[in-house]
Write a structure and sequence with these properties.
By secondary structure, the chain is α/β, with parallel strands linked by helices. It is 46% helix and 16% strand. The chain has 17 helices and 13 strands. It starts with a helix and ends with a strand.
Length: 436
């Protein structure tokens, strides 16, 4: 085979065989095929797309480029959830212990903040002592004992994805639905999940800005996962506004604790309970979503979910007592209030602008090597639909220093829209696509 022939074939819109895809993937990982040819192939995929069979083959080849978690000997079912990224999205921190309390094993491999979206690993690591660098032995141990474990991607897991993603990032091919699908699924299958629930975000604060784009990705994830023999659910949820009342690293841990103690914001709990419920259905622990949601609520009300969360914190090296003592006080000394410029109703708070502002504050990062701060972010006292008077505080904003607040402020102030009438409400859960 020659790489140029494969590039030409995809350029002309033809379907590639598994052998041709293997030639590209293995050749790139080994260094036998140069970046300029793989870049051309990526651009051909971007414009011509892939069939579900091609995407499933690519996912499997990327998966097999490295090691796969061996969860044999641990009683399942193994179900994980993945979010395509949002602002204030701390759902994983709440969902994992809820699902575990209902009998699901949750092997969760998460990522870090990049651009305007937050990262689960950064949030967890804001807990004093908590480590997300787990070898397979400890990952198995915590998964079996606590019902869930939280780790990051190691160098041995899906190395093809790391190389391809880095190249996609600099060749304007990140948004390709088949390539996104293969990237997400290869990592999730590598962690040992038998069933997967995908939270595909749609709106200004999401990578998929429209419901149509989100639906294309959700369908791709569901059908490709199904072709790989997995039970898959794709849930499209709204990311027009930040999820919950707190955005930050430790601030979101704080709100997650509130959620697990039954005191979380309504929007956070609505999305979390729906996704958790689908995990129970996908794992065979409930007949339908209504029964599953009732089980999830009981796991919170009984205290079992919070107990598992605290147990996991201790297992992964965190100081749970210190974590609890920091709640309500772990804030940067540099803060500023966002106030309503006029009387009226809050029409919207733009999640994308809040997420971008968070990068300046120290919540997120532009490059993977940028540091993040645990004690910065946003605490909203009012959200969409609230009636306000001029001068009312909408949010308290915390930055790593005065300069970071100054840099973020045009985005912060520009995120708020005040109208003369109460805005219409819209559902947070937009559409659900299943292959169970």
């Amino acid at each position: 085979m020659r790489a140029v022939d494969i590039i030409m074939k995809k350029r002309d819109g033809a379907e590639l065989s598994r052998e041709e895809l293997a030639f590209i993937v293995t050749g790139y990982v080994s260094g036998d095929i140069p970046e300029y040819q793989v870049s051309s192939w990526l651009m051909a995929v971007f414009f011509r797309g892939m069939s579900f069979r091609e995407t499933a083959d690519l996912t499997e080849l990327m998966l097999r480029s490295g090691s796969v978690m061996d969860l044999s000997g641990i009683a399942g079912p193994f179900v994980d959830k993945h979010s395509t990224g949002g602002v204030g999205d701390k759902v994983s921190l709440v969902l994992a212990p809820i699902a575990a309390a209902c009998g699901i094993r949750v092997p969760m491999m998460s990522g870090r903040a990049l651009g305007h979206t937050g990262g689960t690993l950064d949030k967890l690591e804001s807990i004093p002592g908590y480590t997300t660098r787990l070898d397979e032995k400890r990952f198995r141990e915590y998964l079996e004992r606590d019902g869930f474990a939280m780790t990051g991607q190691t160098d041995a897991i899906v190395p093809a994805d790391k190389k391809l993603y880095s190249l996609r990032d600099v060749t304007a091919t990140v948004e390709s639905v088949p390539l996104i699908t293969a990237s997400i699924l290869s990592k999730k299958v590598a962690e040992g999940a038998e069933a997967l629930v995908f939270d595909v975000k749609s709106g200004p604060g999401a990578f998929m800005k429209t419901v149509a784009d989100a639906e294309r990705l959700a369908n791709s994830l569901v059908k490709t996962g199904q072709a790989m023999g997995k039970r898959i659910v794709g849930v499209i949820t709204d990311m027009t506004e930040p999820l919950g009342d707190k955005v930050g690293n430790f601030l979101e841990v704080e709100e997650s604790i509130d959620c697990l103690k039954g005191k979380g914001p309504a929007d956070m709990m609505e999305v979390t309970l729906r996704l958790s419920a689908w995990m129970l259905v996908a794992g065979g622990k409930a007949r339908d979503v209504a029964e599953a949601e009732s089980m999830c609520r009981e796991a919170v009300d009984s205290g079992r979910a919070y107990e598992l969360f605290e147990r996991n914190v201790r297992s992964q090296g965190g100081d749970a007592d210190r974590m609890l003592s920091l709640c309500g006080s772990y804030r940067s000394g540099f803060s500023r209030e966002l106030k309503a410029p006029s009387a009226g109703w809050i029409e919207s708070i733009d999640a994308y602008k809040i997420g971008l502002a968070g990068v300046y504050l120290g919540v997120g990062r532009n490059k993977t090597t940028d540091p993040v701060a645990p004690d910065v972010g946003f605490v909203f006292s009012r959200k969409k639909g609230a009636k306000v008077a001029a001068g009312d505080t909408i949010a308290t904003v915390y930055g790593r220093d005065a300069a970071s607040l100054d840099a973020a402020w045009p985005l912060v102030s520009g995120s708020l829209s005040i109208g003369a009438a109460a805005p219409a409400t819209s559902p947070l859960v937009i559409k659900e696509i299943t292959a169970l």
